[in-house]
Amino acid sequence: MSIARLAVVAFAFVSAIVGCAPAAGAGIDRVLSPVAAIPLPGTSSRFDYQSIDPRQHLLFVAHLGDGTVDVIDLRKNDVRAVIPNISQVHGVLAVPELGRVYATATGTNELAVIDAHSLRVVARVEAGDYPDGIAYAVPERKLYISDETGGTVTAIDVRTNRRVATIALGGEAGNTQFDPRSNRIFVNAQTSDQLIEIDPRRDRIVGRTALSYCKNNHGLLVNAPARTAYIACDENATLLTYDMRTHKVTAKNSVGDEPDVLAYDARNKRLYVAAESGVVSVFAAAPAGTLSKIGMGLLAPNAHSVAVDPATGYSYFPIQRPSHRPVLKVFKAGTVQH
User: Residue 119, class by beta-carbon neighbours within 10 Å (0-12 exposed, 13-18 middle, 19+ buried)?
Assistant: First the structure.
């Protein structure tokens, strides 16, 4: 999310102080059961995206405020390494089949290429204006980076670590995702409230869908088996369910103010929506991709990032704590009592 939207919503701070939480469905403590709280290195500053390498059981956390990527050993629940000098790191994506991790350094407008074994930066690539989200088109072996304020998507060939295309969207770019079923890249055009479809073979836009009920679509997640995408609209606190076959919005749900990062738990069939307000919304997902809200509440101020380990179903939330060390909160899926 751009610097212009980084201010923490006042309500989240007030709620944290007085101990209240927005009411919707079950309380968040009924759907998230604590497992661990892992102290994180560095300052208590802003975090952003996360990505898991399931082969090495490592979680990569973008520590935006420190310009580092924190590497967490998921089997030991401790910090394996800190990768430095990735200025204002926003997006991070592990690609285990390549033995690489990619991170967007917004402060220098480049992509950092990290060796997944040595945990060192091995290359840096120019990556547009304000690079943010990252998606990997597997058959084409290309990365697609949403350049938020530049209003473009940058395509980078992972074999050469070179930029091969710049695709203009006509407005600010939100997050980007790859759909393996259609072999398409999808990106949120948040200025025009559109979902844009890109053919990675030709690096051309092949579709645009206007998103009703949405203001500033930023967060995006593709549930490929269900042929569904979930779209977070951060200016009107709405989550859309999008049918990728009909190219239509099929449902909308309320979420916390300024929703940002989405994560899907395939093991427990749950969708998590983390918001800048610190409110986390949890949905049960049916096989067809339809959602039902099972919990919503304040987790912590600015708890806007979430990742899920596909092996365990555990969810991870990096938390800023003023005057304290930052912490990575770990939860397992709780059972909702009816």
Answer: middle
Amino acid type, 57: H
Question: pLDDT-based confidence at 23, cuts 50/70/90?
Answer: very low
Beta bridge partners of 318: 328
| pLDDT value at 13 more than 90 | no
d(CA 49, CA 106): 13
How many H-runs (helices) and E-runs (strands) does the chain carry? 2, 28
**Pick from 122, 103, 117: nearest CA to 55:** 117
* Bridge partners of residue 113, in order along the sequence: 102, 123
Q: Does the pLDDT at position 64 exceed 60?
A: yes
The two three-digit tokens of residue 20, written as one number: 């209240």
What CA–CA distance (Å, rounded) separates 242 from 228? 6
Q: Which amino acid belongs to residue 212?
A: S
Asked whether the beta carbons of 128 and 114 are under 8 A apart, the reply is no
167: Cα within 13 Å, side-chain hemisphere: 27
Other beta carbons within 10 Å of 296:
25
Closest CA to 228 of 190, 179, 188: 179
